[in-house]
Amino acid sequence: MTKKTPAVKETALEKLDVFFEGKQSKVLWSGMFLTFILGLLLFEPKISLGGDDSMYINRGYNFITKSQFPTFQGPLYPMVLGLIIYAVGMKLMVLKFFSLFCLLVAQWFTFKLFRDHLSPFTLFFLILLLSTSAALLYYGSATYNETFYLCIQSIFLYYFTKSFVGSGLPDTGLKKMLPGLLISALLLLTLAITKNIGLVAVLAAALYFLLIKNWKYALMLLGSFVVLMLIFNVLKSTFWDIKDIQISNQLNTLMNKNAYKPQDGTEDLAGYVTRLVKNSEVYLGYHFRNIFGLASNEAITGNAVVALFIYIIFIAGFITFFKRSRFWLFIGLFTAVSFGVTFVILQITWIQERLIIVFAPLLLAYLLHVLHHYFSHSLRRYANILVVFFGILLAANLFRTVTRIPEQARASSKYMSGDHYYGFTVDWINYLKMTKWTSDHLPKESFVACRKPGMAFIYSGGKDFFGIWNVPTTDPEALYKRLKDAGVTHVIMANLRTNPDDPNSRVINTVQRYLGAIHNLYPEKLTLVHQIGDEWPAYLYKLD
After folding, report:
1. Which residue, 187, 223, 232, 236, has most beta carbons within 10 Å?
2. Pure H helices in 12-165
3. What's residue 254's pLDDT?
4. Which domain covers residue 483, as residue numbers?
5. Entry pTM
6. Do 272 and 229 lie in a common domain?
7. pLDDT at res. 1
8. 492 and 373 assigned to the same domain
């Protein structure tokens, strides 16, 4: 009598895959619903202290009302905001809701991108994590360009993988695929003119074609992109007389050893290697965990062990799927190039979560797929451990998100009742009130300089300000001439703290140093006009 082979016991991971089989549509709509509801509950009505979000609105307003082409950062997002302003007026809440709309579109295409390439449970888990991430939801009510970029990126990835990531690609005629290459190049252009880092998508797509030994497609895609970029720059030069290439505005800053001290010189090879290591420790070891609720918000500290662990899982997956799956080859390549270039070019002092958040969903999906693969095969006996880990990750993510709801609901309520300064500390309130005072009391032809011109633009009701970002020289005569040549008539000097929640943190003294140098040479040129606040006051000076 032959012995019966004992039945292999089904793991919890396999049971969950069976349970979610055929429920993908429900997963999508549940995720979209969660994103929308939590996006409303966590809605942030005020502008951030960073300033970039308000500058996008400022540039969009100037684009649509004064035909000023948006420069310095990617122009496409401010141009889109300008069109919204043209349609509905300067309504901050409408502009913020546009971000939530972009987040929902990004989630839709992210689901479609991974639907046929993740196991049912892994897909469910991915969408649930993305829907409940407080970090991602924050950008759903911020006017940074992250959700807009996420939206375009997800559309590009879905379209590109549907069109070119398939086993029959090498035998497909170039003529037949030319329209797809042109559409892909157009989507790549929109990424590149939204954020400079969007250029890495072009590199990743071309590298993919080269890896599958289809150099003709690589050349056609690159050629199409270059032609479209040239057309864009010709139009920009013709209609707005803008001669600079977009990335040149920021390239010098990125290449400097110190972004704020160009006199220190440009970075060397050892410096770029240091950036790669240090940024990996902070962005992977802290920020990536924090985006999904596994790190403390109190202190940003790099974690080399976590970063190394992520690298090991990622590289193991890349080796495993290099020849098995063109889809995961492309997603892995796109993710690796995006993070790699980001870590090399970013200054170590720029430790902002938003600099990687547009790539975080891709890295998360890749890591989840790799883990699911290994715990379904070589590590199958330990599959229950992975399920427990997924549960811990989900619980931490939900806890982080839910605990933020009461304060955000209070902030939204205060804003709706007319308290537009709620949530700001007294130093920022005095500053913002001063910007409004200049709009209400100074002649229309006045031009005011300040440290945060974007925020001043929003809270003054749409008045343009001149930004004093740094003290470019120690020559007081040159500093004075710079302001006068720009037409500046007044200057706001506030006591803004680097950490508003810490009364002992240092004051951002850029304007103080600027005016101090002028005052030492021309004391008669500065006259105090108005003061708001006794604690951390804001001052307005007339510049004669």
Report:
1. 187
2. 12-20, 24-41, 52-66, 76-88, 92-114, 120-132, 134-139, 146-164
3. 65
4. 426-543
5. 0.91
6. no
7. 41
8. no
